[in-house]
Amino acid sequence: MAEKQFKIVLLGEGRVGKTSLVMRYCQNVFNDKQNSTVQASFQNKRLNLDGHRINLAVWDTAGQERFHALGPIYYRDANGALLVYDITDNDSFVRVQNWVKELRKMLGGDIVLAIAGNKSDLERNRVVSQERAEEYAAQVGAKHFNTSAKLSKGVNELFLDLTQRMLAAGGVATKRQPVVEPTLTFASSTENNSSGKCCG
Amino acid sequence: MLGSSYLGGVIHRLNPFGSTIEGGIEQSPTIPSDNKQIEISNSEALTHVATDAGEDKMAEQRMREPEETTDNAKAPENEGSSTVQPTTQVTTSGPVETPTNHPRDIIQIHSDSAIKANPDALTSSTVAQVATSTYPLSSSIMDWMSFPVTTVAHYGSALYNSLPFGTTPNVPTEECTTTDLLPPILYNEFLEKLKDTPEGRELQQAIDDLVTFFERDYRDLLYNEQARRVHAFIDTVVVDGRYSNFLKNLWNHHDERMDWKEHGAECLEQIIMLKLHKMTFAQNQDMMDADLSTFQRIESLSFITTQHLDIPEKYVDNDLWSRVTEELLQLNSFLTPRDKLRCILTCCKLIFNGLHQVLSQEGGDSAATVDDFLPIFIYVLLRTNPPNLQTNLQYMSTFRHPSRMMAESGYYFVSFLTAVRFVETLDASALSIDPQQFYLLMNNDSEDLEEERTEGSMSNSFMRRTTGNLSASVDLSVVAMSCPPEQKPEEWIWVTKRGNSFSLDDQKFTDFLDTGVTSNQREGSGVAAQNIVPEATDAQRIGPVEVRVERENEVTGEDVEGHVYSVDSQTTHYNEPQDISSPYDGQELLNETRDMEELYSQIEQIEHSLESISISPVITDDNQGEKREDRFLHMEAEDLSLEDVRELLLQYKSMYRQMDER
């Protein structure tokens, strides 16, 4: 049985804990600084779900504003996107909304979205209310989760649900599938410096 | 910090006295006054203890590592030191034969330097010495250049020999495995059985057919179409019963559950792309132009500092970054998309490892993320400015099998691409810089650049960019051609050719090398050239190249003097027809234009003065005047020739005189 490969792109402002979230899921560690060999920016996770062998590749992206315009280079061909904000930081939630807009514009409905309100262990400092976040997620066809990478809460549920929805959406990217057209042409058009065209 | 286990069987030891050192901890005469020197040799000893029979030493080294990282200052006293000089000998051991000047071994060393990922490994300068000083000298370069394509396959096998079995650096857990790197042993078996079994020969025939097809038709195919053919071929082979049985049974004895399709496809891509490289890399002038403009763009951005990119002071590590620079410059030395991607992967891992070290020493509660990584990668890219950047990007993204772009090396490729795109598009708002200052720096720099280009083929602005880069390399073909004799340094330390596409005048090239060799042998230094691609004889293929010459103090190993030149095809007078672009003689055209302008201004003056005495400049009652009117009445200024303008001027002058007389 062929293994299905999904690419999940990870979006979120710096320091919202997006990297910790993925490390918690893929390695089941939280900021394990002793283990310096773990590469946090690209993670693989293999799992079996509903009789499918699945390989998740999680692509971390740089959260700084100055790299915002380059996002499309990362999220082209992504099956799913995980947007992370910090429940104690309203700006990070606004950034998430910007990304959602952009993803929908660039990739339409092809991409499955999940929004994670991270650092739910800091509930007392919450500034982004859960109702507001859930309402927004429903509006844009995403699903909202409260997570805490630190306490390992909500993380597995989040990825499981995201994977199930990607599976339902088709999961076109199986390994070693015959190539019909070469899909990676973005670097060949060097004049197109506007990264927006890369996935157009 | 698991780098040691992954250095593979290839070990080189540096020795100041020309003899080979075996084993890890070597007591040599110390130079206590030179701390830097001690550090270098210490880290080198640490990394390169793994000899053939040295498994236990490797283990010992691994055990020692934590201590080393936390207490660097302690190490020099324990370890002793050795001076590092260009006159080094290289020992290869492990799965490789004894060292010779055979290209296989050379590549081996090279690739080993490319896969090192231990931040405690050699400094770039020592690696560069190893990599370059063992290159064959002129005659053997030429031998290698004329190797038939099939021999290049050995390059691949040697390359894989130097990799350990099956893992990427620093990805230890099963959950985190990547299929990016093919175990060396598998590729070797693949090559072996391709020759030795009937099924293998059939597959070999199919590959040869594909290559023949390319040799005949590749010029008619678009780039993407070429890649599609290659990928379709690979995809077909792994499902076609005629060939797939060969692959299916190939590695059965290792592990029956092995993903043979995966590995088979990797082997196929590797062997095919080795053969097709000369046809598929750097194909058109557009890409050359793109390379050049990116090169110049990066050049003009050389003023960017770590502060501009908000790289925290604690991450600044010039030694490490020099190593990454050295690594990244190897990009053009690799021939297949897969190897190029691995080169980038190695660069990224080096940076990440550095970040992890800083963070773990700090004891903070955060892991290194791509947020920390990307600005550093961009900064290193700016400092490195690897030649043929756009061509490489296109080559990798087009010819690497798309399904592979999902894997880890694909991720780092995208990071690399992001860095390049950022550099291409950045303006003041993308940096932490005052816009006005940005504007000034940009323009200053482009003026410098302009000056360099008009002055001649030389620039030394590279020095600024490569400050702290201990390695030295020289692009030689251009040096030989366009470096004025009085500018040639007395002592050439290393000669390295970078870039894949070159037009070489063999005789000049050899002469140049010979000169270098003799003088250097006298000086006790080494001259070497690497990765000359012989097939590229098309003059069109000259891309931007760089020339870097550095001298090194033989005692301390420090750079005492450096010249770095940048040269591009426009400024290379080599082998290019003088009147390649324009049928005009430029100087004549310029003079003519200047004359015209002068005459125009004279006419204007006269017309103006005629008006000021309110007399119509047009005289119709005079024969001469009528003629003039007839001839010039309906003419536009641009239709006038130089002669016309002169005539008109003379007429006006005579008119003016007439007016004056009245």
Fold topology:
The complex is a heterodimer of chains A (200) and B (662).
Chain A: E1 3-12, H1 18-27, E2 42-49, E3 52-60, H2 71-75, E4 80-86, H3 90-107, E5 112-118, H4 130-139, E6 143-146, H5 155-168
Parallel strand pairs in A: 1-3, 1-4, 4-5, 5-6
Antiparallel strand pairs in A: 2-3
Chain B: H1 35-47, H2 55-70, H3 75-79, H4 103-115, H5 124-133, H6 138-145, H7 149-161, H8 184-196, H9 198-217, H10 223-239, H11 241-250, H12 260-280, H13 285-300, H14 318-329, H15 337-362, H16 370-384, H17 389-399, H18 408-425, H19 435-455, H20 462-465, H21 476-482, H22 506-523, E1 545-552, E2 559-567, H23 586-612, H24 623-632, H25 642-661
Antiparallel strand pairs in B: 1-2
Helix pairs in contact in B: 4-5, 4-7, 7-8, 7-12, 8-9, 9-11, 9-12, 10-12, 14-15, 14-16, 15-16, 15-17, 15-18, 16-18, 21-22, 23-25
Biased composition (Basic and acidic residues) (chain B): 54-67
Organism (chain B): Planoprotostelium fungivorum
GO molecular function, one term (chain B): guanyl-nucleotide exchange factor activity
